[in-house]
Design a protein that fits this description.
Layout (H helix, E strand, L loop, with lengths): L5 E4 L3 H12 L8 E4 L3 H9 L3 E3 L2 H6 L3 E4 L6 H15 L2 E4 L6 H8 L5 E5 L9 E8 L3 H12 L2 E5 L5 H28 L4 H22 L3 H6 L7 H11 L2 H19 L1
Parallel strand pairs: 1-2, 1-4, 2-3, 4-5, 5-6, 7-8
Antiparallel strand pairs: 6-7
Helix pairs in contact: 7-8, 7-11
Length: 267
């Protein structure tokens, strides 16, 4: 199955990040990617940047082999009603990045069953460093591999059961913001101990990147890597213990659980 055209319905922050990731990874040429945007000012900006951007969702979907839905949850029912005729006629692969909307609900609105993938990427997709969790529905092996290939070009991919999507939203979607908040705090501490904010930013970002790569490349547990830099009566263990006394680990766990519980209450 060759993808000659991809449509992204909704060119907001995540939709535009997906567009940049698709183009920069070489999976599709810019002219073969169509974006839809209702805001006239943003539409003009996208066109000025050379994107094939329009404000007609049905036209965008008409020729697409793969359609990405990247809208707000409250917009999805109206959108599916708008698109159901063309989707049911052409049966493109549908990729939904809409938080909290089950596949069963989407199928009931469409009144047909195209190949459907629910995907929870995060904003790292713009630089090909996303964590994308995917559940597949009514899809064959070839279609599944196409979607796997698309998102694996833009970071790590994990196929999960649909019931785990709320947890994936909290961990992968919200988690990038939590990691960024750690970086910000590290920058603030770096400034307090004498670095310029720019130097502290570079150090904090690289420290975090290095820690992540140790886990991914070594396939090791964080504690195994921590043990390599902690020595008896050393400065690292002193700092770690002070953080734990202040609730470092528990605050992260509580934050993730709070995000997850809010998703569950909405679903």
């Amino acid at each position: 199955m060759k993808l000659n055209k991809i449509a992204i319905i909704g060119a907001g922050n995540l939709g535009f990040s997906l567009a940049k990731g698709l183009i920069s990874s070489g999976l599709i040429e810019k002219e073969n990617l169509v974006l839809t945007e209702n805001n006239p000012k943003r539409l003009a900006v996208l066109k000025a940047d050379g994107y094939n951007a329009i404000n007609d969702n049905k036209e965008a979907v008409q020729q697409a082999q793969l359609v990405m839905l990247v809208v707000k949850p409250w917009q999805i029912d109206d959108l599916l009603q708008e698109l159901k005729t063309v989707v049911c006629a052409n049966m493109p692969v549908v990729v939904s990045c809409v938080t909290g909307i089950m596949s069963s609900h989407m199928y009931s609105q469409l009144e047909c069953k195209p190949p459907l993938f629910r995907v929870m990427p995060n904003t790292g997709v713009a630089i090909q460093e996303s964590m994308s969790c995917i559940s597949a529905h009514n899809a064959n092996d070839e279609q599944t591999e196409i979607v796997r290939n698309i998102f694996s070009q833009m970071g790590q991919v994990l196929f999960i059961a649909e019931e785990h999507m709320p947890a994936a939203t909290a961990l992968a979607g919200c988690g990038i913001a939590f990691a960024l908040r750690f970086i910000r705090a590290t920058i603030q501490a770096g400034v307090e101990i004498g670095f310029s904010s720019e130097d502290a930013k570079i150090m904090a970002a690289q420290i975090t990147k290095g820690a992540a790569e140790l886990i991914l490349q070594n396939n090791s547990h964080p504690e195994a890597e921590i043990d390599k830099v902690t020595t008896p009566k050393g400065i690292t263990i002193t700092g770690l213990n002070e953080m734990e006394h202040s609730g470092f680990s528990s605050s992260i766990i509580k934050g993730l659980l709070a995000s997850y519980n809010k998703i569950e209450r909405k679903s």
